Amino acid sequence: MKMVCLISRSGRHLQRYNKGRRLVVGCIPYRYKNGNGDAIKDELEVLVISSQKGQGMMFPKGGWELDESVEEAASRESLEEAGVLGNVECQLGIWSFKSKSLGIYHEGYMFPMLVTEQLDLWPEKNARKRLWMTVAEAREVCQHWWMKEALDILVDRIKSSRHEEEDVSP
């Protein structure tokens, strides 16, 4: 059993802001059910986590801090909140959204992460549930519209890369 010794960062003194908007970074952790990455034969699965404040589900996300790159922040949030490690891929987009609790605007950056390892113990294990599900299930349970848009972009990206591979093969 592999364990990572890490505690979740807390507080906002290192948070990045842009024109008064808190910068938030998230990941859509994904894998292929049968593990070999053939999207045509295998089912794409994404990992959602429970919200700390409510019953809603979402993808891992949190503040982007001054001492890390945007990709490092995405990777850290996935480790802290979902207990997964992997390869952070090319950004899916940037969204502006209003915080439900504070009523202020945030700027959200979303990345896909191809999961290479799932940990048994992680910093927020006792605070969250994590569930692998199909894209359709994740769209249904995800509470944030901007995360659903990011998921659609990821699915389109994977489909188009598969079509390119098919066009190239003999």
UniProtKB/TrEMBL annotation:
Domain Nudix hydrolase: 20-155
Highest taxon of source: Eukaryota
UniProt keyword Cell wall biogenesis/degradation, yes or no: no
Keyword check for Metal-binding: yes
Gene3D superfamilies documented for this protein: Nucleoside Triphosphate Pyrophosphohydrolase
Annotated keywords: Hydrolase, Magnesium, Manganese, Metal-binding
SUPFAM superfamilies linked to this entry: Nudix (SSF55811)
Cofactor names: Mg(2+); Mn(2+)
GO MF annotation terms: hydrolase activity; metal ion binding
One Pfam family matching this protein: NUDIX
Alphabetized CDD domains for the sequence: NUDIX_DIPP2_like_Nudt4
Homology family: Belongs to the Nudix hydrolase family.
Name this protein carries in UniProt: Nudix hydrolase domain-containing protein
Organism listed in the record: Ilex paraguariensis (yerba mate)
